[in-house]
Amino acid sequence: MKTLAPALALALMAAAPLALAECPAPPVQNSAQAVCYANAYAEKNGLPRGPEFRKRASKAKNVWTVAFVDSRQDAPTAGWQVNVDTASGTVTRFTAYKKPENKPR
């Protein structure tokens, strides 16, 4: 039993990255790959995402900027945005947006 535990632990550690994301290997070449890496980051960090979020990706020199904008009128947040490094596929910046408050005049 003691000799089986290290082998089992090694097998679980090797399979864990595959379970988190099914994105193509870097470098990030198109917007679909960038959105995939952003989704994996959102899943790992518990960020809201789904059909009510519009996804937009734009490319800069060394990063893809991926924005998830909540299109619902009564949504608690406006959305969030990440920068995905083109070479490595890692998220290098995260920003969350709040909806502006309607102040009575």
What would your notes on this structure say?
This protein has two helices and four strands; from the N terminus they run H-H-E-E-E-E. With 105 residues, the chain is an alpha+beta fold. It has a domain at 26-98: Nuclear Transport Factor 2, Chain: A. The chain has a four-stranded antiparallel sheet, with helices on one face. The longest helix is centred in the first third of the chain and has 17 residues, at 4-20.
Task: Summarize the structure in short.
With 105 residues, this protein is α+β, with helices and mostly antiparallel strands. It is built from 2 helices and 4 strands. The longest helix has 17 residues.
Strand order of the largest sheet: 1-2-3-4
Question: Would you tell me which CATH topology of the domain at 26-98 applies?
Answer: Nuclear Transport Factor 2, Chain: A
The overall pLDDT average reads 81
Distance between the termini: 72 Å
Which regions have little confidence, pLDDT < 50, spanning 5+ residues?
Answer: 7-20
* Total strands: 4
Rg: 18 Å
Largest sheet: 4 strands, antiparallel
Global shape:
elongated
Report the total helices: 2
Helix proportion range: 25-40%
Based on secondary structure, the structural category is alpha+beta
Beta strand %: 25-35%
Just name the CATH architecture of the domain at 26-98: Roll
The CATH class of the domain at 26-98 turns out to be Alpha Beta
Can you write the helix and strand succession as a string?
HHEEEE
